[in-house]
Amino acid sequence: MPEIIIPGPEGRIEGRYHHNEDRNAPVALVLHPHPKHGGTMNNKVTYNLYKSFAVNGFSVLRFNFRGVGRSEGHFDNGIGELTDAATCLDWLQKVNPDASTFWVSGFSFGAWIAMQLLMRRPELEGFVAISPPANLYDFGFLSPCPRSGLIIQGDEDSIVEEATVRKLADKLNAQREVEVDYRVVRGADHFYRGMLNDLDDHLNQYIHLYSEPLKKRGRIKLDKKRRQLPKTS
User: What distances in angstroms separate CA 142 from CA 53, 107, 112, 178, 180, one per listed residue?
Assistant: First the structure.
């Protein structure tokens, strides 16, 4: 898992990248939780998400948002962090021009940024959102959600309320041509303490099932036209 430095809008972006030698391998981007609450790319949930993609044949990148670790800049309340994520996706596309698919994923605050990136970048074909903070941030921009994906939530989370995440998943599932697999990890708190193996089981099962057909189809055609993210109040 070599360390990489990506030129970003505020200076360097520090990351860790696993490269699959298959030129058609799927690619995933992993986003970490809130920088102001100790979130880094080395958070255990973030690392396990990264590892799950790697063991299932993906090339995968996790990185530190601006102002975290060796990444330069300052926290920007989500706006700059979304730009960081888009910059890293651009880098992944340059390194993997023949990739079969691109996915985005994130934990907590990182899930909120990931879903915004999903709305803006039509080349993203799948997502994994762990504990998306539906009670803390507005997810109304997912109207409609452009892709199917996985949402995982702990039922003993005191930071992100399970009921609000379930409501979000139900809302997305009500849309046409979108299927959101919503999974609850029983007994898990926000950081999945003591439950990381259960989290891994859900991640590996879903990623393996949905990525296998995509690995065989060859290179996707990248649509460079960006979606416009609806304004939220």
Answer: 24, 17, 11, 12, 12
For the record, the structure tokens of 19 come out as 């490269």
* Residue closest to 188 by CA, chosen among 205, 202, 170, 206: 202
Q: How many of the other CB atoms lie within 10 Å of CB of 186?
A: 9
Peptide bond between residue 144 and the one before it cis (omega within 30 degrees of 0): yes
How big, in percent rounded to 5, are the helix, strand and coil portions of the chain?
Answer: 35, 20, 45
Q: What is the pTM of this model?
A: 0.92
Taking 50 as the threshold, does the pLDDT of residue 198 lie above it? yes
- Read off the pLDDT of residues 109-131 as tens digits, 9 standing for 90 and up: 999 999 999 999 999 999 999 99
Tokens of 149: 């994906």
E strand residue ranges, 94-231: 102-107, 124-130, 149-154, 180-185
For residue 216 the two structure tokens come to 């065989």
Reported as a single tens digit per residue, the pLDDT across 63-105 is 999 999 999 999 999 999 999 999 999 999 999 999 999 999 9
- Contact indicator for 61, 99 with CB cutoff of 8 Å: no
CB under 8 Å to 220, separation ≥6 — which residues? 99, 100, 101, 102, 123, 125
Phi/psi at 150 (5° precision): -120, 135
Give yes or no for a contact between 172 and 178, defined as CB atoms under 8 angstroms apart.
yes
